[in-house]
Input
Amino acid sequence: MKVHAVFNRDGGTFRTMDMKLFAEVARATFEKHGHSFESEIVAGKDIMKALKNVAMEAGEHVLMAGGGDGTISAAADIAWKTGVPLAVLPAGTMNLFARALKIPLELNAALESLATGTIQAVDISTANEESFVHQFSIGFQPQMIKLRNTLEFRSRWGKRLASLRAFTRAMGNPPRFGVCLVIDGVQTERTVSAISIANNPYGQGMLPVPDFADRGELGVYIAGRLTPVALMKLAFTVLTGSWRNNPDVDEIPAKEVELHFPHLRRGAKATIDGELIPLQKDVKIAIHAGELKVLVPAALQDK
Output
């Protein structure tokens, strides 16, 4: 196996590491298992160009992306569109897609698990022309991220603290908006505070992570009109892992979802894998089962 890695030196964990030394450790780990390995270390602003260049290389190879969820999401889009297998190296704050793939979060352990891993087909989803491997969200999450982005942080823990501060500020004024939903052909109209659509339904753990990345099914999560008190209760049930018992949350499995916003305000945002994007008046979300090839630990392939 030939692996070409692109490491985002501005990713959460990488910011405080000796990246040249880490790249040598990565090369030694893969070569120990009979693979060829090369890597490049780039700034966050150059990550897209580097990923595209690697994906377009001639010959069979694996594109490894090292960074946070934004880097991994961008790499997955490129790998999917070029048909190149993707290896996910978790170096961000949450590492949600890596968790879904059961990749260890400690970097040396992640390298070892990938070097002994196998290629598997998993799902990727799209919201109009934007692909995602974790989640498309509207409502409360984009509001919180917009607030978080106004705060300064320089580390993973700093980002987590900024997220908590942003949540506290956003909680006092939960968003409410009208939406027309068409879920697998069934239409409803609602006023809600948040909608999240996951690339595979979430599992039973506390974090919003699917147990399987290849079910071929979306998970649709709708929070009704929330008051600040109801939002606080929802946050508590999320933290305790009991959110499925919260009457303000609906969970619906689906293959395809259409969203229409009759009163979309100027500048409205959505999030794709945690990154803010402009929200369009009409959004069609679909899952593309088994269309993304990823390198996964051998234990996952055996299941």
Notes: The mean pLDDT is 90. Residues 156-171 form the longest helix (16 residues). The CA atoms of residues 33 and 159 lie 36 Å apart. The chain has two domains: 2-116, 131-289.
